[in-house]
Amino acid sequence: MVTRRFMGWWAVTLSTVSAAAPLEHLSLAALEHRVREIDGQLAQLANYNLSGGVGAIGSRSSGYDTAEQDEWIEIELGDAVTLDQVVLVPAIRRAGVNGFQADGFPRSFRLRVG
Fold first, then answer.
1. Tally of domains in the chain
2. Residue 73, number of CB atoms within 10 A of its CB
3. What is the pLDDT of residues 68-95, one digit of tens each?
4. Which of 30, 68, 86, 88 could link 26 by a cystine bridge, Cβ 3.0 to 4.6 Å?
5. Mean pLDDT lowest among 31-35, 52-56, 90-94, 102-106
6. Residue 69: how many CB atoms within 10 A of its CB?
7. What is the rounded CA–CA span in Å between residue 92 and residue 103?
8. Long-range pairs for 63-68 at CB < 8 Å and ≥24 separation?
9. Can you tell me the distance from the alpha carbon of 57 to that of 46, in angstroms, rounded to the nearest whole number?
10. Are the C-beta atoms of 60 and 8 separated by less than 8 Å?
């Protein structure tokens, strides 16, 4: 679970630790299989285009008068996995004549795992 503070757009990326053998120990067939797996995962990502944007990405909460308003998102991974890293990235939006903006990114957050 990721707890966030402040109104904001952001996307969350989770990456898992691979338990696979080092690449130099894999056969050509195994490497080609791994490339197909990675390509399949990449195909599921949103196609981001700075000139046109992309569909729904990230999360946006309601605006608040104070910064001390808790917001949270919960990500269900289904099975138990080992996470290598959690990356929070502000989602960029087109703001007309002002160009691209990422507002309300949290100054602090808590990551709860369980």
1. 1
2. 13
3. 777 777 888 888 888 888 777 776 777 7
4. 30
5. 52-56
6. 13
7. 8
8. 63/7, 64/6, 64/7, 67/5, 67/6, 67/107, 68/5
9. 8
10. yes
Q: Determine the Cα–Cα distance for residues 111 and 67; give it in Å rounded to an integer.
A: 18
Residue 6 domain boundaries: 2-111
Determine the Cα–Cα distance for residues 20 and 42; give it in Å rounded to an integer. Answer: 19
- Spatial neighbors of 3 by CB under 8 A, at least 6 apart, are 70, 71, 72, 109, 110, 111, 112
Name the 3-class secondary structure at 105: coil
Residues whose CB is less than 8 angstroms from the CB of residue 52 and which lie 6 or more positions away in sequence, other chains included:
none
Exposed/middle/buried for residue 4 (C-beta within 10 Å: 0-12, 13-18, 19+): buried
Looking at the predicted structure, is the pLDDT value of residue 47 above 80?
Answer: no
Residues with Cβ within 8 Å of residue 60, at least 6 apart in sequence: 7, 8, 9, 91
